[in-house]
Amino acid sequence: MNVLWIVNVELPKIAERFGRTNVYAGWLETMSKQLAENENINLYVAGVTPVEYRAVIVDGISYYGFENGKEEKLFRDVIENIKPDIIHVWGTEYVHIKPLLKVLEATDSIDKTVVSIQGLVSECSKYYNAGLPADVINKNVRIGRIKRTSLKQESLEMGKRGENEVRFFKEVKHCIGRTSYDKNVVTRINPEIKYHYCSESMREPFYDGAWDYDKCEKNKIFFSQTHWPLKGVHECIRALGIVKKEIQDIHLNALGHKPLSPESIRLKSYDEYLDKLIRDNNLEDSINWLGTLTAEQMKGQYLKANIFVCSSALENSSNSVAEAMLLGVPVIASDVGGMRDIISDGEDGVLYQHESERDLQLNIIKALKDNKKAAFLGENAKKHAGIKYNREENLKALLKIYSEISNSK
After folding, report:
1. What are the helix and strand counts (H, E) for the chain?
2. What DSSP assignment string belongs to 288-337?
3. Does residue 385 sit in helix, strand or coil?
4. Which of 230, 273, 291, 352 has the fewest CB within 10 Å, making it most exposed?
5. Long-range residue pairs from 170-175, CB within 8 A, at least 24 positions apart, any chain
6. Whole-model pTM?
């Protein structure tokens, strides 16, 4: 069976082949490796890259690189040349979705296409700036020499991509999801779509090792995504300011770069707001900005944290939460999107009311002070995540989906 993947990144192995480094999408690499080892599967992967390339083979996988804005011809050529039995599209939140749909229709490939639901940009655009003041959202800032933009404009542009996402879901016949939330969203868009369930497999390092309360750094919080307002680091910082009044040695280790630093890639208006929050809450010495980390470095941060916090305004199913749970780290997460399909509140993690600083603050304090409860949550999280994110079972489920689609044609 010829299987073509369309992804939004250059997977780590092929990036390494060209002397580039990519620490993202390791979970895709995990499953691609499993598929490539299956003697009945020929895997082809087309991803966004700095320059176009075709049919570069690494570890039995044929890679194709396409540049945004120039992908239509490559999509058409690849589909016509390899004649895939399955076209698996990973995510619909990207700009290449519009030309991809055009090519799928032109090559009569809709019936053999399945799309994995990821971020659902049509929904995320509605919550992109949740919890931010209007003046911060509306403030125009300069990007480069000419372009000016704002957080509001960024959410509007996300909404435009969401329109393409909705069109895509209306046309395809099959999708893969993993939460009741994503099923509700997609079947509302297209009641006729065939919804297949398949959990995701995480990056390999997170299947080994276990969090230990006695070995963790007490009163340390790990926060893994800070680039977009949607991920809610501002919510966590505001709560942290309140927590510090009771736990003075509280500390936040956050992925990403310090606001207003030369390395930061956030919009300046958001950086300015974060910087002000930090200063107003006297947190300058309470936050450590970690930059970009490899999977192994991330694993180290999870294991030494006292708790992991996810304060996103919307998540379908957070890979960061999944990684934390696989390691047995106590998790506090906002009760949004598909989070209830991942966490059983009070059993293997804690859910709090999003945008309630007091709710988040109280749960952080409780988790840091009650070591027995933290250990209980961590043990259950590791056990339940080991089942949900089992790589062998997820591979079986994916192969079954491919077979069903191929046979249904």
Report:
1. 15, 16
2. EE-BS--HHHHHHHHHH-SEEEE--S--SS-HHHHHHHHHT--EEEE--T
3. helix
4. 291
5. 171/101, 171/104, 171/105, 171/110, 172/89, 172/110, 172/113, 172/114, 172/115, 173/110, 173/111, 173/113, 174/113, 174/114, 174/115, 174/401, 174/405, 175/114, 175/115, 175/116, 175/117
6. 0.94
Contact 316, 181 (CB under 8 A): yes
Would you give the distance in Å from CA 96 to the centre of its chain? 18
CB-CB contact of 377 with 152 (8 Å): no
Quote the pLDDT of residue 293. Answer: 94
Between the alpha carbon of residue 290 and those of residues 40, 264, 373, the distances in Å are 42, 12, 28
Q: What is the pLDDT of residue 184?
A: 98
Q: Provide the sign of the torsion angle of the four alpha carbons 373, 374, 380, 384, taken in this order.
A: positive
The pairing of beta strand 86-90 with beta strand 147-149:
unpaired
DSSP characters for 343-372? --BTTTBEEE-TT-HHHHHHHHHHHHH-HH
The whole-angstrom separation of Cα 205 and Cα 223 is 18
Identify the three-state secondary structure at position 108: coil
For residue 11, is pLDDT > 90?
yes
Torsion region of 139: left, alpha or beta (phi above 0 gives left; psi -120 to 50 gives alpha)? beta
Query: What does the DSSP 8-state code read for residue 280?
Result: H
CB–CB of 374/364 below 8 Å?
Answer: no
Domains and CATH numbers, the chain: 2-201+390-408 (3.40.50.2000), 204-388 (3.40.50.2000)
Residue 409: pLDDT above 70?
Answer: no
Neighbours of 127 (CB within 10 A): 19
Residue with tokens 């620490």: 23
Phi and psi at 32, nearest 5°, equal -65, -40
pLDDT tens-place string over residues 351-394: 999 989 999 999 999 999 999 999 999 999 999 999 999 999 99
